[in-house]
Amino acid sequence: MTPSSDIPGSVESVTGVTSAQDVVNSLRDLTVQAVSELYVKYQDDLRAVRDRQRDFLQRRGKSMKAQLDDYEAEITYLLLREYRPETVVEIGTFYGWSTMWILSALRDNGIGHLYSFDIVDHVVSNVPDGLSAARWTFTKGDVRETLGGIVGSADYLFIDADHGARFGRWYVENVFPMVRPGTPTSVHDVFHGRRPKPISEGSVLMKWLAEHDKSFFTPSAAKAPEVIEHLSRVKKELRLGTPVRESRHNPMVFFTLG
Fold this sequence. Notes:
With 258 residues, the chain is α/β, with parallel strands linked by helices. The chain has helices spanning 20-25, 32-41, 43-60, 70-83, 97-109, 122-126, 129-132, 143-146, 165-174, 201-211, 225-237; strands at 87-91, 113-118, 136-140, 156-159, 183-187, 253-257. Strands 3-2-1-4-5-6 form a 6-stranded mixed sheet, with helices on one face. The protein is globular, with a radius of gyration of 17 Å. It starts with 19 loop residues before the first helix and ends with a strand.
């Protein structure tokens, strides 16, 4: 299956990345075209991960409170597969749904280590040993005190923690300057509607991106329904349409730091 030529561009003012390889070189120009091609490129491995995640979620039931919806989780997995980071930093794990998707990508790449931080340790009892062994380090505590210097080595930064404006200001002022230029980054809970909530992490992040003239990509159904519509068609053609979890809540944004 080859994506059609009428695929819409990315949500914000970015220009023409049209191949999966370009994602590695310029995640700042990520488009739905490039994401679609990644779905095609990694469809078999993604199908296997989706099946394992679906089975895990059904077995755990209410003891696993999954946060990312399918599009957010799948795009994270696909970008990690394509970018092949050696060091991933995850700020916020909650029950470990995003952690498992990240670790699945590192396992399938055969390279990379995940450093996760959270004030609670629910994730420890959820992540299977087969995923965590030799590729995962979890640190419990307030990330503002425990993060240390590892973020300076990050090849991918994933943030899904406290969603208040104060925490948003902390990481744009203290974490972002430590991250190497060109580092792919994703932040959850930004677009619950067409715009971020007025006093929120999302509003702080959007202001920072605008001030630094940085574009972003989002699969948010509230912000970018045309992206969801297109990716839904791609997934159906690839026979990836059966949900892993039922959700239309996908407020994540993807961008490049530096």
